Amino acid sequence: MYLIKRRIYIELQWLKTFSVAAKTLNFRKTSEQLLMSQPSVTVHIKLLEEFLGIPLFDRNKNRVTLTDAGKLFIEKADNLLVQFEESVQSIQSYKQGFRRNWTIAISPLLAETILPYILRTFMRQHPDLEITIRVEESNIIETLVNSGVVHLGISAVDAHSKNLQSIPIFEEPLLFIVPVDSYDDETGPPIDIMDCLATYTLFTHHHPVFWDDVLALLRKHFPGIRTMKVSQAHITKRFIQDGLGISFLPHSIVRRELLEGRLMNVPFDLFELPKVTTYVLVKKQGDLEKEFIHLLSSHYFG
């Protein structure tokens, strides 16, 4: 039995070495990635080739390339390694008390504002549930839910597929966010919107819905406005805190920073700002989905 276990272990190491070598086509780089000596890499490849009875690499001086057999085998080897890792992960999850798996996809815009408020409660109610969080852009979340890769999605974009339920969870206002000045609320002069637009760069496109309409309206009032696309809201917030620019952000995204005095909200009256909606996307509402949606609906994130 010991010999069988030992042989399986060695063969897995051969497969891993082969997988890395097939991608780098360089035994030195393979040894560096796997933290082993280069002769050990050569031995692993040689043993695997002997075990299979066919060369996997063509060796020409200091260069190696995959043979046709190597090209055929790399996909098989990678699949075996993935299956092994998944099996190990399943056992580790079982040891930790998890008996079920549940996956949520959520946009980066919402991940830091929504999940912390509900995950603790949900996890406490379901100690046997292993939850996986996938942070994905909103335009990808619909595909993940529709294909069954994730059980539920939290998105800033409404679903288009007729196969999905798209449930509005909450609607909130956009705020005009600027860097904090040196005055307090009582002694400071009123902040002029046009001065802000003339002084600062406007950070845009960190939300997938409203920016085209807002920019079109802004340019009617201030044609020379300077803009910079910043795709992530948390980076936008940091840039504003550092005095690099201004932006329009949903209230829930900046609630904590406003309370702590790290950002300022300036009343905006050039035109009416749109509201933004957060949606739960789900293909089928089982008990877990219904409970999670209820938790989301019962919290106010603004």
TrEMBL record:
<dbReference type="Pfam" id="PF00126">
    <property type="entry name" value="HTH_1"/>
</dbReference>
<comment type="similarity">
    <text>Belongs to the LysR transcriptional regulatory family.</text>
</comment>
<dbReference type="InterPro" id="IPR036388">
    <property type="entry name" value="WH-like_DNA-bd_sf"/>
</dbReference>
<keyword id="KW-0238">DNA-binding</keyword>
<protein>
    <submittedName>
        <fullName>LysR family transcriptional regulator</fullName>
    </submittedName>
</protein>
<dbReference type="InterPro" id="IPR036390">
    <property type="entry name" value="WH_DNA-bd_sf"/>
</dbReference>
<keyword id="KW-0805">Transcription regulation</keyword>
<dbReference type="Pfam" id="PF03466">
    <property type="entry name" value="LysR_substrate"/>
</dbReference>
<dbReference type="InterPro" id="IPR000847">
    <property type="entry name" value="LysR_HTH_N"/>
</dbReference>
<keyword id="KW-0804">Transcription</keyword>
<feature type="domain" description="HTH lysR-type">
    <location>
        <begin position="10"/>
        <end position="67"/>
    </location>
</feature>
<dbReference type="InterPro" id="IPR005119">
    <property type="entry name" value="LysR_subst-bd"/>
</dbReference>
